[in-house]
Amino acid sequence: MLFLRGILIGFAIAAPVGPIGVLCIRRTLSHGKLAGFLSGMGAATADMLYGAIAAFGLTVITDLLVENTSWLRFIGGCFLLYLGIKTFLEKPADHAAQANQSGYFGAYLSTFFLTITNPITILSFAAIFAGTMLTSNTGSPLVLVAGVFAGSASWWLALSFGVGLMRDRLTANHMTWINRISGMIIVTLGIVALTSK
Q: Exposed (0-12), middle (13-18) or buried (19+): which is 165, by Cβ within 10 Å?
C-alpha cells in the first residue's frame, strides 16, 4: 500500500508539463524514444533523491536547500535559458539521429541537473509527505522512495513512448516549428525562474 502511494506521489510530481516535459518531448521527436526516456529518467532520479530527503526527514539538507533557493533558482534559470536558445536555433536533422552513449548520458544529466536545482521539488515532497503523515511510519521510507521513483519513471516512459509514436509522421518543417516553440517555452520558463522570488 505504501509503495502504491509512493507511485502516485512520484507520478503526480512528474506529470505536470514544465521544462523537463518539454525537453523530453522534443528529444523524443528529435532523437528517438530512448533519448526522451533517459531525459525523463534524469528527472526521476532527482525526484527519488528529493523524495528520500523528505521521507527520511533529513532536515539539515532540506534547510540548506531552502536557504539557498535563490542561488538554485538562478543556476537553474540560466541553464534553462541556455537550453531554450540552443533548442530554438537547432535545425532538424535530415535523417534519424544516431544517438551515442555520451549523448544519452548528457540527456540524462541535463534533466537531473535541472530538476535538482528546482527547490520547489523538495518543498513539494516535504508538503505531500507531511500532509499525508507518511514520514511518521518508521521502517517504511525506503518502500515509499522506491514507489516515488517507479511513479516518476512510469510517467516518463509513457510520455516518451507516446510521443515516439508520432515521430515518423512529422516532416522537417514540423520539427523546425517544434524546435522554435519548445525553445520559446523553455526560455520563458528560464526567465520566470530568474525573475521569481
A: exposed
Question: Measured between alpha carbons, how far is 65 from 43 in angstroms, rounded to an integer?
Answer: 17
* Angle in degrees, 0-180, between the axes of helices 69-89 and 101-116, rounded to the nearest 10: 140
Domain map (residue ranges) of the chain: 2-69+94-171
Confidence category of residue 58, pLDDT binned at 50, 70, 90: low
CA angle 128, 47, 8 (to 5 degrees): 50
Diameter of the chain measured on Cα atoms: 55
Distance of CA 68 to the CA centre of its chain: 20
Predicted TM-score (pTM) of this structure: 0.72
Confidence band for 98, pLDDT divided at 50, 70 and 90? very low
Give which of 6, 27, 15, 5 is closest to 158, Cα–Cα. Answer: 15
Q: Cα–Cα distance between 187 and 80 in angstroms, integer?
A: 6
Per-residue cell: 137: 511510519
Residue 114: which pLDDT band, with cuts at 50, 70 and 90?
confident
pLDDT at 101: 60
Mean pLDDT of the region 174-192: 80
